[in-house]
Write a structure and sequence with these properties.
Length: 217
């Protein structure tokens, strides 16, 4: 275990299976980092959680978490919103910071999560984890008949929202070679060889270095 400024710190995790670890939470990237640096981890992420309001949405995780102030919050979101059915539900970035934020739409819902975290945990440093490029998310056909990659659109918008709100981005999308559209990547780095969930090796090789860098900064 390395003794650094992270030792003994309290880190909360929010989000979906990418943060939780899917079927192997014991080696999710946050658990690997916690064991490496000795910070205390409370991971409230839930498999299948969405940004848009649902029976299992990320806002509920934040609302139900303890009031104890963490030093860091590491979160993600969009994996389970990123489908062709998102057509007409994307929304736009708001002009201000007070809302109201319509969380039946993706972008306002994402802003509402960030605002809620900042209001509830004003002392915490927020790090958003932009997931890797995945071959497991479809294109979306708009009302005009245009084909749009939902993950490209949502990545762009979440990055813009984070810039607006001053949230640090651990950017697997732009700063990592982890791309399951490339031959052999899913078979080697995805749990069960298909889907979106990084296995232990992928967490260690791709997620840990990117998130680690932002935590240490």
């Amino acid at each position: 275990m390395e003794q650094t400024s992270l030792s003994g710190k309290l880190v909360y995790g929010f989000g979906d299976s990418i943060v939780y670890g899917h079927t192997h939470p014991e080696y999710c990237f946050l658990r690997q980092l916690s064991e490496k640096y000795g910070f205390r981890l409370e991971n409230y992420a839930v498999n299948g959680a969405t940004v848009m309001r649902s029976d299992n949405h990320i806002l509920k995780e934040v609302e139900n978490a303890p009031d104890v102030q963490p030093d860091f919050i590491v979160f993600n979101g969009f994996t389970n919103d990123c489908y062709a059915s998102a057509e007409g539900k994307i929304g736009e970035i708001s002009e201000g910071f007070d809302g109201p934020f319509d969380d039946t739409l993706f972008v306002p819902g994402f802003e509402k999560i960030i605002k809620t975290m900042k209001d509830k945990y004003p002392q915490a440093k927020l790090i958003y984890v932009a997931m890797h490029r995945s071959n497991a998310r479809p294109d979306m056909i708009t009302e005009k008949g245009e084909r749009v990659s939902v993950q490209v659109l949502m990545q762009k918008l979440t990055h813009e929202v984070c810039a607006k709100w001053g949230v640090t981005v651990a950017d697997l999308w732009n700063d990592s070679p982890f791309d399951t559209n490339l031959p052999g990547m899913s078979e080697k780095y995805i749990i069960d060889g298909a889907g979106s969930h990084p296995n232990e090796e992928a967490c260690r090789e791709f997620y840990v270095p990117v998130v680690e860098k932002k935590l240490l900064e």
